[in-house]
Amino acid sequence: MKARFGVTRRMALGVAALAAIAVSSAPGPASAATADSEHWGVITRNTIGSPVAELRNGPYGSFGKTGPTSKPPYGKGSLGIEVANNSTTLTPPSEKVDFGNEVDFYGDPVLGLNQVGFYVFQTGENISYGGASNMPNIRFEIDPNLSSTPTNYSTMTWLPDPVPMANVDAWSPYLNAATSGKWMLSGAAGTATGCNQTTQCTFSALKAALNDGGDAPTILTAAVGKGRDNMWIGAVDGLRINQKIYDFEANGVVTRSIL
């Protein structure tokens, strides 16, 4: 299955060597399950410009790379993502894409999220485009249900730490969104909780801020995405949400349970 907007961009730009931060260990073994492709794809209303979000084989490499980091962490495939900067007439001019699921997580409790993360194929070129923190994101659209703020919508976004420098031009180790990086909420919920683009929060602090005595916050959608900021061309695999791993393969999304 392919979910694709626009065409693939091939750009050759210089590589900048920047330091990075180590991340948490990988989840345990996972069993195979049936494909759930029908509910995964580009979330069109959240996509700007003509980016690419395509289920693909590989990537393998880069050239000269061997061992576990030279191939996708699960199966043979991944989700390839390509976004450009300065490519639209909007403000900001950069592109954005979300590849996700608008059905299976609807109504699930935000406070029930305990494990979230993924693996990234990061390149030196991406670092040169926007620094070591130029990374894809995990996004949950939620109903925050805050008692202090009458809003029923916000996007909860994870901003990963940079991958370890040894894993540039290869697959990263598992990036644990519950213990590393920062989180933010969009709109009025971000202002009310203090977890926003200016003052980002840890995962535990974000959940504590949402647990303000009102109705429990609920999930609307779950997605992997990039933008609107810097150009980025890479891949993501092994999206974890609690005890499920979503394995992106060229022919669909396979759900694996943590054993």
General description of the model:
This protein is mostly beta strands. The chain is built from three helices and 15 strands. It has helices spanning 124-130, 187-193, 203-210, and strands at residues 30-31, 40-42, 52-57, 77-83, 97-101, 116-122, 137-143, 154-159, 170-171, 175-176, 182-185, 218-226, 232-241, 244-249, 252-258. Strands 1, 3, 4, 6, 9, 10, 13, 14 and 15 form a nine-stranded antiparallel beta sheet that branches. Strand 13 and strand 14 (244-249) form a beta hairpin. The protein starts with 29 loop residues before the first strand and ends with a strand. Mean pLDDT is 90; it is low at 1-23.
Instruction: Tell me the strand percentage band.
Output: 25-35%
Output the helix-strand order: EEEEEEHEEEEEHHEEEE
Could you list the spans in which at least 5 consecutive residues all have pLDDT below 50?
1-23
**Main sheet attributes: strand count, strand direction, barrel closure:** 9 strands, antiparallel
Distance between the termini: 27 Å
* Helix amount: under 10%
**Backbone structural class:** mainly beta
**General form:** globular
Radius of gyration: 17 Å
Overall mean pLDDT stands at: 90
Query: How many DSSP helices?
Result: 3
- Tell how many strands the DSSP assignment holds: 15
